[in-house]
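Table S4 entry, Pimeloyl-ACP methyl ester carboxylesterase.
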Amino acid sequence: MDILLIGGLWLDGSAWDDVVPALQALGHRPVPLTLPGQGDGSASATLDDQVATVLAAIDSASGRPLVVGHSAACTLAWLAVDARPEKVAKVALIGGFPSADGQPYADFFPLEDGVMPFPGWAPFEGPDSADLNEEARRGFVSAAIPVPEGVAKGVVRLTDERRFDVPVLLVCPEFTPSQAKEWIDAGEVPELPRAKHLDYVDIDSGHWPMVSQPVELARILAAAADEG
């Protein structure tokens, strides 16, 4: 199965370099995406531009793919599912939850000169980054790409109720499946309570398992693709 890999903020397709060979060894075709404004294009890129890139990958996939979104890109993956519900076999959400219609995509950190740079490790101290050694942190920072304002402040628009028919796998890194279920049951995650097929899987990692646990993440995604 084709597995489309969408990294979160500040990441381009190279974030999946250690996941790709592991997925290939398990018999799947990984397609890491480099998004407009995050390794492809300029600081003028918009959320619509990024959605269009994901939709183009779905449309050119062999069969119905597994769409994987990480962190903020869980919303990007969900937007793509909303636009192509009949063409996606399953969606896997890693370390994040899709935003609701009308919310900003990722207006989380200060903007500087029209972009949102990586804010440093202070906001991510604790479970998010505890499994990253100094070498991994330096590598992340050196590769981090500032996110264009038009992406970060783009408004989420969801229109097709068929998105709730697409099976969802929630991969839980810095939080547990039990915590995720509590948040969803409490109404803190607006979209997922309506998903008709929602499964959870734990992974013993921080917020970036593609860096710290790439082989285990590949195993989880391959299993999801096999089930799909």
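The radius of gyration is 16 Å.
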